[in-house]
Design goal:
There is one protein chain. This protein has 219 residues and is of the alpha+beta class. The protein has helices at 3-29, 46-59, 85-93, 123-139, 154-157, 159-172; strands at residues 63-67, 99-103, 109-116, 143-147, 190-193, 203-206, 216-218. It starts with a helix and ends with a strand.
Amino acid sequence: MMKYPVLVGLVAAIIFLLVRLFYKKSRQANSWWKTPYESQEYFLSPAERYFYQVLERLVGEEILICPKPSVREVLRVRSNIKHDRQKYFNWISQKHLDFVLCERKTMKILCAVELDDRSHKQKERQRRDAFLDKAFKTAGIPLFHVPCKRSYGRQELGVLYDFLCAHQREKQKPDEDFIPVCPECGVPMVLRTVSKGERKGQKFYGCPNFPQCRETRSL
């Protein structure tokens, strides 16, 4: 006589557990529908924004400033590394930099910049910085650390200032191997010297088909 109620209770318990399990899995599957997020008010902190403005005045128009990129967008594991490849990728996948400077036209990476505030004095942060310093040195990309200040001059910017000045001087050097092509005749132009007048002695490029073609280019 007691078997029937026990059996009913057991079936009910099994049904309850199955329904609960289904509900739990359903919630997990659809949990991404819940998006409890809101917008950050500013992309950069006040200190980062001020330093960004300092960089803007320093680099000019030919260099692009990329704030807060992931390290994995700047470094990659060498293609010849097969063993522990995922481990090396994981070491950089969750790390970010403060700024990366690139050539605007080509997006070639020039250097990375870390704005060091008080958090960089923590032991865990110091281990992170030491790892990144070694990783960037191995990759051949300069990584500069600039202490967070209320104002920035040449002394505060240190080697970053020297690096950017050297890069600017390098870009301003004339390309001695460059020979312009005459836009009319489509042939390489030749180097000539002004023989008379106010510009006597100055060099310029002229079309080899002169005097039929009078195209010129300044040196």
